[in-house]
Design goal:
The chain is an all-alpha fold and 84 residues long. The chain folds into two domains: 1-37; 39-78, no CATH class. The protein is built from four helices and no strands. The model has no long low-confidence stretch (mean pLDDT 75). Keywords: Plasmid.
Amino acid sequence: ITFENFLNTAKDKTFKGEGLNYFKDIIKGTIATELQQNDDFINQVYTKILNKFLNDDSSSISTTYSKVKDKLGSGLSTYTLSKD
């Protein structure tokens, strides 16, 4: 057996048939775990989402944001604080 034959056999068994889905799941899980633990990545994602959410007036996201903001604003204005 040569190293090249071993690699070809491993590639065929890994990337064809059921091995491919298993391999994809392992890769997705590994990447997701790594990204989840990376605070810089999480902050970048939140920043992009918030920028899209707040700055895109043509999207349904903007409409949803306006509805949520209005609902929260009206709810807060009618809410009274009481000391128990």
